[in-house]
Amino acid sequence: MIRETLEPVISEQLQQSAALTLIEAQQKPIFVDFISLTATNILFSGGCYYKTEEVYLAAFSQLGIKLPESQKKAVLKRQVEFMAGRYSAQQALYTLGVNPPVMIPVNKDRSPHWPDGIVGAITHSDHLALAVVADQKNVTALGVDLEKEINPTIAKDIAKQIISLTEQNNCAKWGCPFNWFLTLAFSAKESLYKALYPHVKQFFGFEAAELIELNTIEQSFRLQLTEDLSGNYKAGDCFRGTYSYQEGFICTLIMCINSG
Q: Which pLDDT score, from 0 to 100, does residue 16 have?
């Protein structure tokens, strides 16, 4: 009788263990330390590895991550990315102290709906997902983005969509490889978008900001708005961010500290 009672529990534990092994949960994803060390005791992060395979959907489902109705007709790649991002968000919230784990719903504008009093951002690229969260008492705006380094040939073809002539000149002045610089600019502007969108509630493109400063020693950058986004975010406003380059990926992070 005891064995029959325990068998379902043991079976579920084994399935969860297999799921955790599949996403390499015991291996700390790259960039997690970079995010945590950026602001110790303020920022909290989580992440995981994944592949675009059906077995990963089953693994994340076993770990309590569910697909919302809006994602059930999406292609497999999008579904796995969504679940990997939400799992990473749960891990980040857990380190912040949110327990038991909570699902992060999708707003009507498709942005993540974070628990009250928490700001956060999710990113994924290729096979890696990351999430970062903070208490709104400490951080008012937060954005993170992860990008695989853009191929040099592709970089030349898409550059005009991402950076201005001024930024291209800055790249030459700073002596950066063009495709690396383009990847950094792309990621930095994505992080800025994620940080500001909850405040401005409107879409804005790459042309809304320029990368005006880059420090490769401190691994930091500064973006400046080129247009008004709202009454509180106007052309000329600057935002400082940090970045890390590891294993062919660039991760950027922008956060605005609550000065009040």
A: 67
Least confident of 142-151, 208-217, 250-259: 250-259
Domain 2-27+50-134 fold: Ribosomal Protein L22; Chain A (3.90.470)
Q: What is the pLDDT of residues 194-242, one digit of tens each?
A: 999 999 999 999 999 999 999 999 999 999 999 999 999 999 999 999 9
Owner of token pair 């994602």:
71
Tokens 């880059």 correspond to what residue?
Answer: 214
Domain with CATH 3.90.470.20 in the chain: 145-257
Q: Are 47 and 146 in contact (CB under 8 A)?
A: no
- Which residues have C-beta within 8 Å of that of residue 183, sequence separation ≥ 6? 147, 148, 149, 150, 155, 250
Please, what sign has the CA dihedral across residues 240, 244, 250, 254? Answer: negative
Contact by Cβ (8 Å): 155, 133: no
By the 8 A CB rule, do 121 and 144 touch?
A: yes
| Residue-wise pLDDT tens digits, 85-122 | 999 999 999 999 998 778 899 998 889 999 999 999 99
Q: Which CATH architecture has domain 145-257?
A: Alpha-Beta Complex (3.90)
